[in-house]
Every structure is written in structure tokens, then in C-alpha cells.
Specification:
The complex is a heterodimer. By secondary structure, chain A is of the alpha/beta class. Chain A folds into two domains: about 20-365, Rossmann fold (3-Layer(aba) Sandwich), CATH 3.40.50; about 380-515, no CATH class. In chain A, about 35% of the residues lie in helices and about 15% in strands. Chain B has two domains: about 15-175, no CATH class; about 180-335, no CATH class. Chain B has helices at about 15-40, 40-65, 70-75, 75-90, 95-110, 125-135, 155-165, 175, 180-190, 195-200, 215-230, 240-260, 265-270, 275-280, 295-315, 320-335. The chains are: A alpha/beta, B mainly alpha. Bound molecules: iron/sulfur cluster (2 copies).
Chain lengths: ~550, ~350
């Protein structure tokens, strides 16, 4: 409950950015209007999409599940208001490359009628698995932007002891204020969600980390803590330095430890959750409400009345913009997310999804209009600010010359794409673009490589082994099931899992999370020359060798 | 409404290469004025010749290499190269020497390696080395400072001398030119004179001020001041000059402590010749220096070491150009072995430490 800023560590580099935050916090969070139709993409998170439960013509109620999760790393989506499903179709979704994906389109009836809700009376009496299951079926994903299923993140697995649970209210990107406003206005809900999470993680203490430039939010949370006589949660004010809200950077600041490369926070006993996610957990447990809305910051110099709107998932962006007074004359870029890591959208005819924390409308004078790219002068400014302590200029050099072996030696995959390097580059090189390109190329190459004979043999081996394991597991499970037949629960999916299997699944999920976190999905498969192919193979075999040693 | 797309980040800080170069040029002004005040118009004329040559060669090469002329010609890098070279040349260097040096710097050292950002060697220093090796005699045409008892030329005479090689009738060549104090000291020390003897000498004595040579103290002092300003503005990395000067001080001080009479004292090393220009403006050229923190320390210290060796035992009076070029060669290696430990990595994961490097 006291501030311990003197015990904090630093991460390398970082930027002091001007916040541009005041423009969107002049008014309290308001309710976005229910649009005439909501467009709900089936896949809004990292992981597998669920199985469709509804069909065209169905009448749905607010909170009714539209999909159910099919695998461990998956989240369902729900109808965000009541109405009739008019189509289930491919629709443009917010995506860096402007993809389309399956969406359920609901014509709203304006009644906003809830489905029957089943709140949990006394969550302390439920065990972690049950609570995770409720969170999972409420479709809750990380609301900080990454949209990773929260239930998975709340399951660090039996091999990890979690010592530090950090609730991320840093919100270090300029312009975005949705977490700030949420903390100011709904501090109680956040505290309540945090208690549930701590219970699930079986941890005693939680830390809420907030950038020092949000005194109101810090005050509100402290007050909520006092009011509830909470002693196990403390609020820590951390220096405002972009990207201190990045998971790895935040962990370094709070614990002084670094998440190992290729590892997960749980490997060093840490878990980070966004504060917005906590409010969603509170809603799911205490009211039985699934995640059907979120707070979105609509801001930027290109929009007339910047503000935060509590928005139904699936609301078209254009509706939000018009509720904010519409565009200004000079609006010319629409960014989902913040100015440092967000991506541009070509149109506003896209639905708000769970991971959408901010719509930034930039005006023509925000962007450097004539951005003149010069050659790298090796000034090293990028390396000075890189929060991952990389050498961005070397990454750029090898990425642009397609030397994918070297670029990995310089730890390309530790790049968090924060954009600090490109921000300071006097030659105005779009560095991050090169890193994304290189990552994508390398994934594509690896995928191609797996088609090689060698990989096929390995694959076959693995297949047989998995098959055998699966049979054994089924056998064990069958025996166990017989034993547990009486206690059979209504939800066989998780409840029946033996700890071992849960552990395996959790491990698989972690691997998956790691992969997903590495960045965006591969796109534009390119044909590579033989020389490049060979380079990659050499690199791989070398890497393989060093592993064997 | 359709929006434009762009890659993140969607904002950036407004300092560009052009602005960096402009600030560097700005920082050169005080020291340059001091050089003109103490050593006459030759400095100024050299800068003009070098700049015009540099711009012409730059434009020519850009056209030949099929590059857009305007953005590169106006980035200021050619002018910076020209100024650095001109400030390193003797004040009465013949015009063609300046032209050859500058042309070599821009055409060979810069553009034939790929232009701005791709040159492994500092262009100004490459140009300097070419002329000092090819025209050693012309490279001794330094003048004495404008103080009582020495000859000085006016603007017209200087201009004529540089362009025609004809000295005005009223002076003999010997009276016009004079070795730099750094050179004098070295030669005389070589003749077994002690520092004190040299200071008392009737011809050379008045050339020495309280720190080093008259005039040179001021020039170096001002380059030091504006260099510190550049470092403070983070337009150069302070580690490089700190390495150069620290190393030079450490070595010269140690040797001077060992034998005060026969080694040049540290104050003289630090305020003579092109040392401050070299440490703050030449060695810090980011393109040819190491880029990592540790690498920059080593790079600077290496230059300091080499300058000391060349000045003390080498065949040239000032060793900055050779020192810089030698360390330019080492820069890629320094970069590789001084990679910072990336977040989440152990130090031994630096690739250079556990696998032999066949690629370079
Ligand atoms: S900041 Fe830009 S110019 Fe400077 S070293 Fe990095 S990439 Fe090169
Ligand atoms: S984008 Fe990558 S390389 Fe650039 S500063 Fe961020 S982590 Fe470093």
C-alpha cells in the first residue's frame, strides 16, 4: 500500500515521450450507443478459434455464447447485445494487412436483453480450475492489446511458483487513456478482479504498477484498497518511460529480473495481467457477465471530441467516430492502438474487437509528411534507446541484406517491436518494418524447411510417439473416469483433467503463447533463392549442433 | 473514407541527418575562427577550396551512381568532410593539394564504397593520408602564429601563394613557413635537447605558450568546448573523445613522470595539433566508428594509444589520421565482440564467444 519507487530497477534504453493524454480525459467514460448491427469476429485472440454454436436467423440475447472453445488456448465470443443473426460471413477485420475473417453479424433489437446470468456467490470456495474455467468461458482475454486468453495465463502450471503478480496499469503509450480512466472510475472492480486472480494463482500478494504521470488513478486505487481494508495489494508508482508497460520491461522494473529469452514470465516466478482484464474478471465472477464490451480511447488530433467510450464488441469503428463528433478536416491516418506500436487501418468500416484499446486518428501534421529516408549513419542512437538491449542498426543491416543467419545472431526474435529505435533514427529509417519482414521471412523459411526429408522423418517419429502417448493417456483416463464416474461434473473439459495432463497442456499452451507472442502472423510467402535457403539450413544445423553440445 | 497506411511507429522525433550535420558545422565555427585569427587567411581559403571541391565531386558521383542529387547534396556530410580535411591541412597548402585530398575523400573513400553510411574509412582522414604520403614537402607549409617577431601574409598574398606558389618578394620562403610546435618539439627532443632548452630557444621559444603552442592552445580549447557541447546535445558519443583524450593523457603523463625532460608533457599533447578536432569531430564520425558503448571506449582508447605512439616514435608529427584509419579497420571487429548482453540473455550467448565466425 505504500510506494516503493526506491526499490525499482531500470531497463535499458526507453524513451520519454510526450503523453498527449489530456485530450481524451476531459470527460468521464461514456457509454457508446448500441449500433444498428454488430459484427463479431469469431477469432479475436491469440490461439485457436472456437466452434460456431449459432446459425443465420437465430435470435440471440446479450451475453449468449456464439462459439465454444475447441482447444486449451482458445476463447469463445459472445453476442454483445440482443438481436437477430443476419449473416455469418467473411468480413474485414482490424488487421495490419487488412484481412477478412469469419464474423457473426447481428442486427440489434435495441432491447439489450441479457441472457440469464449465473454469478458465483462465493468464489473463495471454488478451486482454481473451476474459476479458470468460468473465466475461459466468459471469453476473457488480455485487454492490454495482446488478447491472449487470460485463463491460460492464470495457469502457470505446477512446475512454476509464482512469487510476483503484477497488474499492469502503466499504459505507457502516448494518447491511450482507457486504463487510466478505468482505474479512476472503476477502481473497486479492479481490486475485486485482482483478488480473484490472486486466489486462482494461489498468490498472497499483488502489485499494481502505474506510471507516475497518473496520480488520479494511483489515488483512486489506493482509496479503493483502503476502503476494502485490503492489505495484500500495493500500488507502485513507476517512472514514466516508454515502454515500461511492456511485459518484459515491467517485470524488470518491478523485480529486477529478466525473463529469459525464449522463456516466459512464469519461468522467473512472475505473472503480468492488465488492469482492464481484472475488471472483466470481476464482471464474469460476481455477475456472470462474459466479456462483451471494453473501454476504447478514441483520440488524436484528427477527431473532434476525443474521449473514452465503453463499447460493445463488434461496434463498427465509424459509429464510435461519429459519436466523437466525426473527423476533422485534416484526418489522414487511422491507427488501432497507440502511435508507437499500433497499426494503420485503411477504413473505419471495421468492428471493435477485444484487443482494441485505442483508435487514434492522426492529422496530416502529426506525421512527418515528407519523411526522407537516408542511409544508416551508424550513429547508435537506436541502440541507446532499445529496451531489449539489441543493436538495431545491425539488425537493420542484416535484415535488409536478407542475411537471416546473422540477423538471428543479433537476437532478432528478442525485438519487441516497440518502435523506440525508429523513433530516434536521424535517418528516418522505418526500422521496425524491416524486423517484421525478417521475422516473417524466417518463419516462412522454417515452414518450408520442415517439408524437407529430414524434418519428415523427425515428424514421423514424433507422430508415432504422440500416437502411443495418446493411447496410453486415453487408457489412463478411461480408468480414472470409471473411478470418478460418480463425481462427474457438468464440464468434462477441464474438471476431469488429471494434473499431469493439465501440466502437459499448460506446457503446450506456454509454447504456443511464446510463439504467438513473437509477433504477428506470417504473411506473403516469398520464394527464396537457393543460396538463401542454404544459408538458413547452415544456420539451423549450426544451431542444432550447439544445442547438442 | 480511405486512410493512408504507414508502418509503426507513427511519430518520431524531429532530428534528421541534415540537422546533425548542421549542428556539427556550427560547432566547428569557434575553433575555425581562432585558427584564422592566429594563422591567417590560409585556413579560410582552404575551407572554401575544399568545400567547393567536395560539393562538385559529391554531385558528380551522385549523378554517376544514379542517385537523387538534391537530398544527398544538401545533407551536409560532404561539407563536414571538406571542413575537417581543410582544418587538418597546413595553412599554405597549394590549392591542388586541397583539391586532390578532398576529391579522393569524396570520390574514393566515400562514394566508391557506397556513399554516406557505407564507407568503412573516415573520408577526410583517407584524403589526408593520401596527400601526406604523396606530397610530404607541401604538407609542411605551416605558418607561424600572428605574433610579434614573425612574418605574416595578408589575404591577397596568401591567396596568391596558395594558387600560384609564388611567395611575395618581401619575404623568403623560410620566413613564411615554420614547423608546428608539435613537430619542433619532437625534432628538438630527438636532438637531445630538453624541454626546458627548447622553451628557452631564441627562435622557437616564443612559439610556446603556457599549455602548448601559441594559437594552438586556443584552437584546441575552443574545439574542446564546442565538442563538449556536441556531446551534451548527444550529437556525438562522449565515450569516443573521452577514450582518445583519456588514453593520450594517461600515456603522456606516465612517460612525462618517468622522464620529464625528454618526453612531451601531457598538456602539450592535449592542446597541440589537431587533437581536439580529431577527438571530438573526426574520431566521432559515427559511420566509421564502433557503434556499441564498450566498442566506442575501446575505439577511442585505441586512437589515443596510436596517436601517442606515432607522435612519440613515428615518422609523422601528428598521428591522428593514421590512428583513426587504423581504428576504422578495427571497428567491425570491436562491434562484434562488444555486443551488449541482450535482455533475457546470458553474457556467453553472444555469438562471438562460442562459435567460430566463418562469415567475415
Ligand atoms: S538510429 Fe538510424 S542511423 Fe542511427 S544507427 Fe540506428 S539505424 Fe542507423
Ligand atoms: S523495435 Fe526492437 S530493435 Fe527497435 S528498439 Fe524496440 S526492441 Fe529494440
Amino acid at each position: 500500500m505504500t510506494e516503493h519507487s526506491n526499490q525499482l530497477s531500470n531497463f535499458h534504453g526507453g524513451l520519454k515521450l510526450s503523453g498527449h493524454k489530456t485530450m481524451s480525459i476531459t470527460s468521464p467514460i461514456s457509454q457508446a450507443k448500441i449500433p444498428a448491427k454488430v459484427i463479431i469476429p469469431l477469432h479475436q485472440h491469440i490461439g485457436d478459434s472456437g466452434e460456431l454454436l449459432v446459425k443465420t436467423g437465430d435470435k440471440v440475447l446479450k451475453g449468449q455464447p456464439l462459439t465454444q472453445p475447441t482447444s486449451y488456448v482458445s476463447a469463445p465470443v459472445h453476442a454483445s447485445t440482443s438481436g437477430t443473426i443476419t449473416e455469418i460471413t467473411e468480413h474485414k477485420i482490424p488487421h495490419p494487412s487488412g484481412l477478412s475473417a469469419a464474423c457473426v453479424v447481428i442486427e440489434t433489437d435495441g432491447k439489450d436483453e441479457w441472457i440469464e446470468l449465473t454469478p458465483v456467490k462465493n468464489y473463495q470456495q471454488l478451486d482454481a480450475t473451476d474459476l479458470r474455467n468460468i473465466i475461459r468461458h466468459a471469453g476473457i482475454v488480455g485487454l492490454g492489446g495482446a488478447a491472449f486468453p487470460t485463463a491460460v495465463k492464470l495457469n502457470p502450471g505446477p512446475t512454476h511458483t509464482i512469487e510476483t503478480v503484477i497488474f499492469n496499469g502503466a499504459e505507457c503509450e502516448p494518447y491511450i487513456t482507457c486504463d487510466d480512466m478505468l482505474m479512476r472510475e472503476r477502481a473497486d472492480e479492479i481490486i475485486s478482479g485482482i483478488q480473484i486472480s490472486l486466489h486462482v494463482l494461489n498468490s498472497d500478494n499483488g502489485i499494481i504498477a502505474i506510471e507516475s504521470n497518473k496520480p488520479e488513478a494511483i489515488g483512486a486505487l489506493k482509496q479503493a484498497i483502503k476502503k476494502n481494508n485490503t492489505t495484500n495489494i500495493k500500488v507502485i508508482s513507476i517512472p514514466a518511460l516508454y515502454p515500461t508497460g511492456g511485459e518484459k520491461q515491467l517485470i524488470k522494473v518491478i523485480t529486477g529480473k529478466e525473463v529469459p529469452s525464449n522463456g516466459l514470465p512464469a519461468d522467473i516466478g512472475a505473472v503480468v495481467q492488465n488492469v482492464g482484464t481484472m475488471a472483466a474478471i470481476h464482471q464474469a465472477i460476481h455477475f456472470g457477465k462474459p466479456l462483451i464490451s471494453r473501454i476504447v480511447t478514441i483520440t488524436g488530433k484528427g477527431v473532434k471530441k476525443p474521449q473514452n467510450l465503453d463499447t460493445l464488441i463488434g461496434t463498427p469503428m465509424s459509429e464510435l467516430i461519429s459519436q466523437c463528433g466525426g473527423y476533422k478536416e485534416n484526418a489522414d491516418h487511422l491507427v488501432m492502438g497507440g502511435p508507437m506500436m499500433g497499426f494503420t487501418l485503411t477504413t473505419d468500416q471495421l468492428p471493435i474487437i477485444k484487443g482494441c484499446n485505442c483508435l487514434l486518428v492522426e492529422s496530416s501534421d502529426d506525421q512527418q509528411t515528407q519523411r526522407r529516408v537516408m542511409p544508416c549513419i551508424r550513429c547508435g542512437e537506436c541502440a541507446r534507446v532499445c529496451p531489449a538491449t539489441l543493436l538495431p542498426q545491425q539488425l537493420y543491416w542484416y535484415a535488409s541484406s536478407k542475411n537471416f543467419d546473422k540477423v538471428q545472431d543479433y537476437h532478432l526474435f528478442d525485438c519487441i517491436e516497440c518502435g523506440c529505435c525508429a523513433y530516434v533514427c536521424p535517418s528516418q529509417i522505418p526500422l521496425v518494418q524491416y524486423y517484421r519482414f525478417a521475422k516473417t521471412e524466417i518463419w516462412n523459411l522454417e515452414r518450408d524447411r520442415q517439408k524437407s526429408d529430414h524434418a519428415r522423418i523427425r515428424h514421423d517419429f514424433r507422430q508415432t510417439r504422440l500416437e502411443k502417448e495418446k493411447q496410453e493417456r486415453e487408457e489412463r483416463l478411461r480408468k480414472k473416469k470409471e473411478m470418478l464416474a460418480k463425481k462427474k461434473q457438468e464440464n468434462p473439459e477441464t474438471a476431469d483433467k488429471d494434473p499431469k495432463q493439465a501440466a502437459i497442456e499448460a506446457a503446450l499452451a506456454r509454447v504456443k503463447e511464446k510463439k504467438e507472442q513473437a509477433g504477428i502472423n506470417p504473411k506473403n510467402v516469398e520464394n527464396l533463392t537457393e543460396a538463401q535457403q542454404k544459408l538458413i539450413e547452415e544456420a539451423d544445423s549450426r544451431r542444432q549442433q550447439s544445442k547438442v553440445e | 473514407m480511405l486512410f493512408k497506411t504507414a508502418s509503426s511507429p507513427h511519430q518520431n522525433q524531429a532530428i534528421t541527418v541534415d540537422q546533425v550535420m548542421q549542428k556539427v558545422l556550427l560547432a566547428l565555427i569557434p575553433g575555425t575562427i581562432a585558427a584564422i585569427v592566429f594563422f591567417g587567411w590560409g585556413v579560410f581559403i582552404n575551407i572554401i577550396i575544399a568545400s567547393l571541391t567536395a560539393l562538385t565531386c559529391e554531385a558528380l558521383m551522385l549523378v554517376l551512381r544514379n542517385r537523387p542529387v538534391k537530398p544527398y547534396l544538401t545533407d551536409g556530410s560532404a561539407i563536414v568532410t571538406a571542413c575537417l580535411l581543410a582544418l587538418a591541412l597546413p595553412q599554405l597548402a597549394p590549392w591542388w593539394l586541397t583539391v586532390i585530398g578532398t576529391a579522393f575523400a569524396i570520390i574514393f573513400a566515400k562514394h566508391l564504397y557506397g556513399g554516406l553510411g557505407f564507407n568503412p574509412f573516415n573520408p577526410a582522414m583517407a584524403g589526408y593520408v593520401v596527400v601526406i604520403i604523396s606530397f610530404p614537402r607541401e604538407m609542411t607549409q605551416w605558418v607561424p602564429p600572428l605574433i610579434e617577431g614573425y612574418t605574416h601574409l595578408n589575404f591577397i598574398e596568401t591567396f596568391k601563394l596558395i594558387f600560384t606558389g609564388i611567395a611575395p618578394d618581401r619575404f623568403s620562403w623560410d620566413a613564411i613557413t615554420m614547423a608546428t610546435p608539435l613537430d619542433t618539439l619532437k625534432v628538438q627532443l630527438g636532438l637531445e635537447l630538453s624541454i626546458n632548452d627548447i622553451h628557452q630557444h631564441k627562435t622557437y621559444g616564443p612559439l610556446f605558450g603556457s599549455l602548448s603552442g601559441v594559437g594552438w592552445e586556443w584552437i584546441n580549447g575552443l574545439f574542446l568546448a564546442s565538442g563538449i557541447w556536441l556531446a551534451y546535445k548527444r550529437l556525438i558519443d562522449w565515450r569516443i573523445p573521452a577514450g582518445v583524450l583519456g588514453m593520450l593523457f594517461f600515456l603522456s603523463n606516465s612517460f612525462a613522470l618517468y622522464d620529464y625532460a625528454s618526453f612531451t608533457p601531457p598538456s602539450f599533447h592535449l592542446f597541440s595539433g589537431g587533437i581536439m578536432l580529431g577527438a571530438f569531430f573526426i574520431a566521432t564520425d559515427p559511420v566509421t566508428a564502433s557503434t556499441t558503448r564498450k566498442g566506442r571506449w575501446l575505439y577511442g582508447m585505441g586512437i589515443g594509444l596510436l596517436i601517442f605512439i606515432i607522435r612519440t616514435w613515428g615518422g609523422y608529427p601528428d598521428g591522428i589520421a593514421f590512428a583513426v584509419l587504423l581504428m576504422n579497420m578495427a571497428a567491425p571487429l570491436l562491434d562484434y565482440y562488444t555486443m551488449p548482453r541482450a535482455y533475457g540473455h546470458q553474457w556467453y550467448e553472444i555469438p562471438g564467444y562460442h562459435k567460430e565466425d566463418q562469415d567475415e
